[in-house]
Each structure stands twice: as C-alpha cells, then as structure tokens.
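User: For my dataset I need records formatted as: sequence, then structure tokens, nothing else. Please produce one.
Assistant:
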Amino acid sequence: MTKEIIMSSYMEMFYVDSTQQVRKTGLGVALESDAETKAAFETYRKHQVAWEGATFLLDYRDAEGDLTDTIALDAAGFKAITGEQPKSEEDYRRTDQQFWRNVKESLREERAAAESFSG
C-alpha cells in the first residue's frame, strides 16, 4: 500500500545563526495555488539584503519540492514578512533541534513498522 502525496509549492523561513548554520524557524506557508505562492514570494523580494548581512533566508520550493529560489533577509525584512519579532538564536536552535529529533523518531517508527510487516 502506498500513500499518494500531493505537493504544492511553498515558502519556508530559516534563521542563520552566529556560526553561519541555517536553522529551522518553524515558519512556512503554501497559499491556495502555486501561482499565488510564487507571486507572494516575489513581492517579498523588496526586503532582500546582501547575503553577508542576512540573518534569515526565505526559500521557495516548487510543487516537486525542489528549492528554486532564496531571498536573504535581515531582522526588519523578517518582521515585515511575518509580522513577528525575531526570536533569540537559542529559540531557533531549540526549534531546529526539535525538528530533527522528530524526523529521527519518525524514521525509527517507520523502520519498526516495516520490519514488523515483513517479519
């Protein structure tokens, strides 16, 4: 039995920490259509800063999940786009670490289910 996965394009925000590691923020969005999502992404380009000054990255992924564009942002651009104040570096590190713990746990569960199904 296979699951059919229907993808759509989406945007996802990342934080660039003091060691230049890119961290999950937990923020992302897919609008009603791929065209709407891409159009919104393009409107955010006005907040773009030089890569060297970026503390946030806004990624655009197409309907196949491929990364097709990224906008470098500073804290002001982040706030303009999300309507939120940036959190602390430690908050973003925790969010990122929790995401990867969840991924590992999900993979362990899938592996255990596959082994019990085949065994």
